[in-house]
Specification:
The protein is an alpha/beta fold. It folds into 2 domains: 95 residues, Urease, subunit C, domain 1, CATH 2.30.40.10; 300 residues, Alpha-Beta Barrel (TIM Barrel), CATH 3.20.20. Helix content is 31%, strand content 20%. It has 13 helices and 22 strands. The strands form 5 sheets. Strands 3, 4, 5, 6, 7, 20, 21 and 22 form an 8-stranded mixed sheet that branches. Helix 9 runs antiparallel to helix 10. The longest helix is centred in the last third of the chain and has 24 residues. The chain starts with a helix and ends with a strand. It binds zinc ion. The site of zinc ion has 4 residues, from loops.
Amino acid sequence: MKQPGRREGRRRRPWGPPILGICLALAPNAGPGGAAAAPATPAPVRRGILCGQLIDGRGDRPLKKAAVLVEGERIVKVGGPDILPKGIEVIDLGGATLMPGLIDMHSHPLQSTDSYQVDHLRWSSAYKALKGLKAVQDDLMAGWTTLRIPGDDDVFYAPMDIRKAINEGMFVGPRLCGAGHYISITGGGGDMNFIAPEQHPIADGLVVDGVEEMRKAVRQEVKYGSDWIKLLVTGAFMSTGDNPADVHFSPEELKVAVEEAGRHNMPVMAHAHAAEGIKQAIRAGVRTIEHGTFMDKEAIDLMVQRGVYLVPTMYVGEYYEERGSDSPEMQKNVELSRKYHAEFERRVGEAIKAGVKICVDSDFGGFPPELNAHEFASLVHAGMTPMQAIQAGTRVASEALRWDDRIGTVEAGKLADLVAVPGDPLKDIAELQRVSIVMIGGKVVKRP
Ligand SMILES: [Zn+2]
């Protein structure tokens, strides 16, 4: 059956080398928001980059006065300035810090206002797809070269169409993966719980009850192009009419979801706030826990033992704690975030100390794209070193995606997804909000 590598296959594009899985190169000469030029067959361009320091995503320390040699879409050499052959184009970044492209493990490009459930009722999928395309392009310009979508506010798989249009070279955009929908119980975070009973709108999530409906939902997700399965295992903060302290799916439903996903070699991500929901999801075999707000010691230990990744989405709560929201739907989120902020940060700190593998994420797309990188600062505040936080948003995330054979570090053989910031993010982690150069698959899409 289908899985990411096999579905898209290894195929030769008219303008370039074979492309692995759904992790595709951009068309040449495409500008942000603009259609690509007609495919040509240029020889792979060799390009050098010089920087003040290189954070490669693996090492504990940066490499000072470093150089990276890129050929076509890939990195071919990393070292000192002497590795660059004479006569090639060199981008000299001066004192800037060069890093792997950032990976956002929890991005909702289709959710762009504080009232996403109302937006779902008033906006068509086509309109949301256009807004979503703009949002992922803005994310790319802010340094995010890969996004995982954890289900989005959509009915007709618009995130998969955005990915298709980018992968076909129609538009410049980041590498995308993820789920079309979040799968929810009736009355859960993916249902519309503020509508009169005689109305029957299509919910923003896939609403299922029982083992067989779960199996069918997973198969539907696979059929229409999801390469992750997303489960709303507990209630949520931002949706109306449900409670994040409640566990929604039964262990049997979780088990069948993971089993069915596994048949398609597809990993499962579990939205889970309540400790019991986190533990049930881990025991069922999910790969990532989203949020983890009320995790206890047992949940943390289980994550360590089973190698489960935590995607804590800390900043989105902080953003709304600071600013509040005019939207009645967001009031629950604002109140809960304020109430549990300190406790959650302490728990993330414990997870960091225990050695849980943690990834960077943005969650709700209602704020400007440069603020997505605030999550790095939130993780540092919770106890990570700046270097650990950068690795959480690059190498560790690539491992969680199972794409560490192609992205996540600056190493020979990897795709040339690179970003630079003017200063030193090891001294001021907020530098990550000031990305000045972005290269994806060897193409510079932003430069100072
Ligand atoms: Zn989310």
